[in-house]
């Protein structure tokens, strides 16, 4: 994540010129002074510290970017808020809704700008879907279906990183990836009224990880040595009732062989449908029911200069964007929020609401019943 | 359906030679003698009757093929069984599990061969998926996801055919199309232990239909004239717990704009995955986890001579099959069952079990709780 | 081919009702009386003969369907024409343009209806492409690109069927499959003015075939036993200049591993583009340049009731057609031609022109120069 | 291009750590001091100049990156070489082979490292294709087919940028984009022996451009005002004979509606096939003939940690790369070449050879004959 976030700050003015604000990579913190010094060199920061509190104390810092394991989000974010700094925090916002609420309350009290890094909604094709829905192009939404399928932990020999430990991560596929799809649900359809879900852990223990860095699919598989217990979910499956009457479903797994970053949605409306798959992120598929009967079909629209954020990206559709650009766009919108003092979306309120949905999903999985979100 | 079934009897020996048995199209029944006479001419039957009982009474008839609205299935099937005739019946087997049970009991008592026309499982790609799973190519199944999305009734002006009337159809998308996906679930994964579901009717009334024939997507849309009430579901969404511990989900709708016959499944196992979409029915996508790490990917396998039923189909993959071939293959297996006196699958027992699952889905939608299938 | 053609006659009234004419499968000829008798039983013919001349002599026969190796086309077709019978002949019409011209002259002189079985242009998606082009939906055509890629003979151990022998087949991939793509070129774009081509034989000899039947991809591979010489092309590659100024290219091979019946075209016009791949034959991809800039993209249109021949096919798009339906449609149009006495297209004149193009391609490959078709 | 190149220098260490060398963005030149100053700020350069000669004179500069219209390549490159600087130059290397030869001779004489920016061959999927071919995974190559289809100039109202002026660009689609596909041909298959081609200009004149910046698909279309003559090709179509006996074809256009950056190749070998489309650049499709007959199919392999350059990219396949990453990888290999003093590929020799192929294509289009490349 250090890579993705640093790239965003460096590349923002190259892509969007003039930028809303010119980010300066002032100081980077890491687990040790040595690690931080190396990171500073690698990621182009002016200085480095081995202790995140030093960043908070630094009066010259305007914005704090939190890209650490989930259990550390609250303390850093609350300290940063109290120090009057604007904050972007990686997702999920926190391990629990109580933590997330405390974070939300802290930023609200401090009056700082806050953002949670559900970067995928800033994929131009997703932003275009939002634009089409807002314009009414597909009418009233009836149904939403999302998946986030990965396979990097399908092998039982992939190591027990912090992502498999409740004490650090809070939950498994639910918090790690399903939250991105929940962000899509709220962004594209609206507030969720109730959920009915199943959580499942397929692989009960995994080899202890060598070294502290989480390598995801790049991690070496090994079957020897000690193992540790997985106490989070591998898979989440939920049905959704939206406040506006739409229904839907959502599935996330990190154990679905052959799927890599298969973050998809399909929305059916009274006047059309929209379909998206991040694995082919330059494309948005749009069906408009009022096209002539013999010329109706999903249009495969390649994002380009005519689409959201197109003025800052590449001058020909399908030159194409990767993961990096989703963070560059996120950075752009964060800078704009800081300058305009208008709260961006998704922010800590959104992060809190998603934490509550995650808890409702967990509760529903235990009870076998619908759990309402209420207020 | 008359077309599809008649094609199957005529084409069986052309495709599979020698055929297990040589079907003779002896007599066709329709709602009137005139309609039946025309049908006989069109579909190549030797004779016709305006009253289905005459078929039952005909001693020269070995096999009865029931392709009528759901409410007529029980009486015809039970009469045919009592007359000692083998039976193939269109899906769903009946409107209710009670009806289905009576039909199952009748055929069991009569000792005749019986089959329910879930033809899609005979798509060669689906049969190949079954073969791979049986061989253990993808290990133990963890997860199953199916959809059956159509859009022919998404327009509120599409007419109120019998498929929207509970008294005739029993249910809506649930019985009409979700049952095909449920058949996949049981065929590929195993018995269903419990369901947790939502049924939804989007369009509460539709224009009364002109004429008796159900034209599906070919029906004329019209907004004038009297309307009638839709008392079945437009959409079904269910989570599934299988007896073997796998979990899954299934969604079916006839209102999903842009989807035509989008009958899909994806199965994740401990050693690989399989994916299928009937809209591209010649293809099966298979991911084998033990392929070398740099050469792993879903294989898009075109069905041909090397695959199930390949000896009877076309001599080059991707010459391709249509809906008709799924019925020709079904007919082949029915003839084989009649000759070998070995019960084919799916049969009325399967039809009954799916009827029970449908009722559990309906019950769950009402109660908001998991409903176990039990025994 | 016996299967495909017989299916067409049996299924025509089932699909298109009422049919233009009701075909009667009167007599089938094969290489021996035994083979013919079995074929009659299999394919539902009233009678059989071991000698094709007996068919010609039969006064009760109106239409002769020629589905034999290429070298026998001229003698049968000319005899049938002289006997006043309407004729449909498999493609390519003949081994040489001289033979094709003689056949064309014979049918013209006899005043009978004649058709050459380039069935793929009757795929509804291809007919829809033609309709769109004729309506001007994509403007004036600038460019045409076609491929016909198969892999059934890529293995050097696939046997030396008649398709690899010039004396029987006339040419290799050129006559066998490239002619279908040339038919597309003339159908969709217009007359070809000149070609510039390369022919190539990759595999110089193959195992002699056991038995007389050509099994294509279903043929057993074997490396033992005697081999025979391949004296036809495995691959053809040609550039095309059309009379209307458009340019294009066309490639055909039976040795392209992984491609099965990859018959594709893409047409670029001044107002849009159209793309087709027979391997996904239910779909036509259409790009309309005057769609709004942010909503432009290839529309993936599934053929159904709203498209050419849709009234006779299946009532929901993507129930889908296979190879058989292309022949059923061909049969429908042949019957209509016989009844209306209007010459269908493509007919023997088209078959002759394509034979001339094939010779120009062969000549160009030898000379390395453009060869004009002239008159 | 300033954006893409600057991004590469900034991002290199973020992606590949430690980098072969740590690039410093010392000075940027532009058409004026003002433009250069703004570019320096935007792209993170330490200083700027309004005159490229000042860069050449700067002793502290090790590497010169030439990203200007084609007509300026020779003078800058030759001056840089004479000043002993390493050089990366945008493609095509020059307008003519004579210019390209002079550039090649200059760098050879100076003994500097040189590279030509055919970045697309550094797409990981393309590098993986090369690896598979080198390892013999698909056997001996028989056939190569490439396309590079764009549509940004299909509209006759898109402005007359320098890319449509022979004096500046040298040629049209040929030099601009076909050269990338020619680079693929030489990279994946081998040296080209001869070509036989057609060049075509569809749109003879275009509106004069407002302002100097080339905006490609982002350029405003306008039909008013003065027009200027297009004296380059819009489309190129060529057949290819390779020195190793393989044959192939290549097509490039900037007028193919619906195609954006449709840079594709398909290679058929004696043991398999490989297919690639840059519009879906994370994927490589590979068919291995020795897979079991019932499990053969194109494998859709998503590039990730297991593939070329995977150690420096994202830790999960399908997080995905965009255009930027192709330049970051290019920059990595350039830095490595500078450090190791081993000439990278493609270099000015490659650029020169491609310039010669372009001239052979042009000559062939005029003569209608095969043109051999010879030595």
Proportion of helical residues of chain A:
25-40%
How much is the average pLDDT of chain A?
A: 97
Q: What is the CATH superfamily classification of the largest domain in chain A?
A: Dihydrodipicolinate Reductase, domain 2
User: What general form of chain A does the structure show?
Assistant: globular
- Judged by helices, strands and strand pairing, the structural class of chain A is alpha/beta
The largest β sheet of chain A comes out as: 9 strands, mixed
CATH topology group of the largest domain in chain A: Dihydrodipicolinate Reductase, domain 2
Strand order of the largest sheet of chain A: 15-14-13-12-6-11-10-7-16
Q: Provide the domain count of chain A.
A: 2
Q: Any idea what the CATH architecture of the largest domain in chain A is? A: 2-Layer Sandwich
From the N-terminal CA to the C-terminal CA of chain A, the straight-line distance is 33 Å
Quaternary structure of the protein: homotetramer
The CATH class assignment of the largest domain in chain A is Alpha Beta
Gyration radius of chain A, to the nearest Å? 21 Å
Which segments of chain A are poorly predicted (pLDDT under 50) over 5 or more consecutive residues? Answer: none
Total count of helical runs of at least 4 residues of chain A: 10
- Give the topology string of chain A: H per helix, E per strand: HEHEHEHEHEHEHHEEEEEEEEEHHE
Proportion of residues in β-strands of chain A: 15-25%
